Amino acid sequence: MNTDLNPxxxxxxxxxxxxxxxxxxxxxxxxxxxxEEAYKQLEFIGLxxxxxxxxxxxxxxxxxxxxxxxxxxxKNIHDTLKRIDPFYMKDDTCTSPEVDLCRxxxxxxxxxxxxxxxxxxxxxxxxxxxxxxxxxxxxxKAEIINLLCHKLSQAIATDExxxxxxxxxxKKSLKQKKQAKKLxxxxxxxxxxxxxxxxxxxxNRNFKITLELLKNYLSIFLKKLHTPNDKVPPIVGYxxxxxxxxxxxxxxxxxxxxxxxxxxxxxYFADLLGKLWKNITQNKGSYHSCNHDKAFYQKLAIxxxxxxxxxxxxxxxxxxxxxxxxxxQFIIEKSQVKQRTFGYSTRNLERSNVGRPxxxxxxxxxT
Length: 367
Hints:
Helix content: 40-55%
Strand content: 15-25%
Radius of gyration: 25 Å
CATH architecture of the largest domain: 2-Layer Sandwich
Mean pLDDT: 83
CATH superfamily of the largest domain: EIF_2_alpha
Number of helices: 10
Structural class: alpha+beta
Distance between the termini: 35 Å
Shape: elongated
Largest sheet: 6 strands, antiparallel
Number of domains: 2
Number of strands: 12
């Protein structure tokens, strides 16, 4: 394939570097993600997220007038605890640091019979019900949950494995932010106008595929961008992020850039890119174009961007910082633990010396 047809994108060697995946040490074969397990993981991740925001305060407190009654203080934590599977103590197809942390604390705090007896009604009891923790002793369920959440909050701050995982996430996020901003800065420097297109690519939920196959679809898609034609728009740069969500499953967030001096019809080209994705995935894929919904955005970062439009540059910067490079919780197939979840075009962009030099308004883009 002649990649020189689109000089702004990566050559084939650069694609292999960007998409390279270091397999996990056990060389596990790619498997279809267990959606039910993924939902369980997300609930535990949600529990940790709520606890991080709660400030290590009790989930329940004693009623001011009735000392045998507990009232809910943090309903989001209370509701999440109702949804989690407390017997989910071993990974099958996916993993996450939050789930590992929860398991560690659950085992340390909860009585063994609550952890292992599937017939127990502990998780269905009211917070004001008494629960036997030994044959001779009973306590209110609220007291057990308060202790559990207190220990979880402590572990969030002190557990070395979890702290290391969070530090690694933060380091990756900062690196991704720097890389994305650098690309945007180069593109604005190269082109006086950019056409910015924002699309989500996913697989229809009635199709079950492995993450490995999804990665292959992405690789084919990126290679297609090197040979623009009537079905493939001439893209001069892009940024992508892989995420997992309950509604969409695994999906890619993309920002595409085109030469805004030549191209204006962002929704038309968004549809072309969407149709390309559907074609590559043999109609298993679907897409959502944010450019078709510009009226819903308070701060518009898509469509035509002029090099001196600082307000729109700021909005684009926030889109990259707060969305594409956020330090988020992430679950991943165990066979693909080191799967790359972020990428961008890396072809050098040299600005032409033709024309009058312009002052760049890139305060928020410079890193």
